[in-house]
Structure formats: C-alpha cells, structure tokens
Design goal:
Chain lengths: 114, 112
C-alpha cells in the first residue's frame, strides 16, 4: 500500500493564480479530509468527505473547493490564491462509521503564495 | 466552539528526563482523543484513547484520558534525542466520529 499520497510536494504561486492539490489513498477509506498547518500551530480542517459524492466544510473553508468523484481521490482547489493561504497542506483518510478510527496523513504540500 | 488546548507550548529537557504533556478539551460530541508525533513532516499516530482511566502504553510512551475532567496526558520516560518533535493532541468529533480538532501542539526538545 502506498497509503496517502500528495502532489506536488512544493508549490509557489502568484497572488490570483489557481491550482489543484492532489490527494489519493489506496486503503479504501471512506473518509478523507484536508488540513492546513500554519507555522507554530496545530492543524485546521478545511474540507472533508465521508464518501464519493459527499463533501462538507470544515473550520476554514473560504477560498478552497473540493470534490470527491471517486473513493480514492480528493483534490483541493485554490480558486484565487492569496498570501494568507501560504501554509503546509495535509490530506488525511480513515475508515468511517460508528467506531472511531485513526486518521492517516499524507506527506504534505508546502505552498507559498507571493 | 470546539476547543483543544495543549500545554506547555514548548519544553526543553535533557536525555533521560521524564516529561508530561497536557491536553484539555471542550468539544461537543466527543468520540475519542488521539496523540500524534510530528517531526517536520506528516503527523504520525501514537495513541487513540476512548475510555477513561485506561492507560495506553508503547515503549517509553504512555497516555491516559480523564473524560470527567476533560483532559489527557502523554508521558515520555527516559527521553532520547529522537523524541524531539511537536506532539499534537486531537479530538475526534462528529456523528461519524471522523472530524479531528487539533490543539496547537507542544514542541519538545531533548538535549544530549
């Protein structure tokens, strides 16, 4: 199993540009999510999905869009990048359902917006 | 508003010392509390605690949850330089028990 994979590892954008961060998992997890981590802070939830075709907003969704057309993939789109979106982005996945499950994290994408 | 608070913010110790990291929480629909270790990359899972009073142990690390007082502690005994990292506490919430709310982390530095 590759686990949770993210691409790219690093990205530099100019203000106003758009881009998509890719996330894929091969563990057949229903639940996938995106977090951002700013320097010296914990992770904050951007968007999440409990299955293909179902997405919802987390704590900090503004400026980001997601879609979930397959179980494996959960891309994060930045519509018009702003310097405030400079951060490290982590994708995570887990099983879903009645019992709590640990979440597995991808290696992260470091994004700088100038 | 759901809140997870970790203390201390940072800690410097010497090899062989024992440390205790704290995590308190105020959330709706608590399902479980998780500890992660982060070393300049993705968080790696340490423990999941769902029931009060049951200690989870892995080598020199151990953790316990108190659901009445709404806190958890993570103990590391006989610290080593390889324990240097940010330790993150997160609470699993939501009907399906999937959403994680994170604390700000405790940065631990272990000096030789």
């Amino acid at each position: 199993n590759a686990g949770v994979t993210q691409t790219p590892k690093f990205q530099v954008l100019k203000t106003g540009q758009s881009m998509t961060l890719q996330c894929a998992q091969d563990m057949n997890h229903e639940y996938m999510s995106w977090y951002r981590q700013d320097p010296g802070m914990g992770l904050r939830l951007i968007h999440y999905s409990v299955g293909a075709g179902i997405t919802d907003q987390g704590e900090v969704p503004n400026g980001y869009n997601v879609s979930r057309s397959t179980t494996e993939d959960f891309p994060l789109r930045l519509l018009s990048a702003a310097p405030s979106q400079t951060s490290v982005y982590f994708c995570a996945s887990s099983y879903s359902g009645g019992s709590p499950y640990e979440q597995y994290f991808g290696p992260g994408t470091r994004l700088t917006v100038t | 508003e759901d809140k997870v608070v970790q203390s201390p913010l940072s800690l410097v110790v010497h090899e062989g010392d024992t440390v205790t990291l704290n995590c308190s929480y105020e959330v709706t629909n608590f399902r479980s509390l998780l500890w992660y270790k982060q070393e300049k990359k993705a968080p790696t899972f340490l423990f999941m605690l769902t029931s009060s009073g049951i200690e989870k142990k892995s080598g020199r690390l151990s953790s316990i949850l108190d659901k009445k007082e709404l806190f958890s502690i993570l103990n590391i005994t006989a610290t080593q330089t390889g324990d240097s990292a940010v330790y993150l506490c997160a609470v699993l919430i939501g009907e399906a028990g999937n959403m994680l709310t994170f604390g700000g982390g405790t940065r631990l530095m272990v000096k030789p």
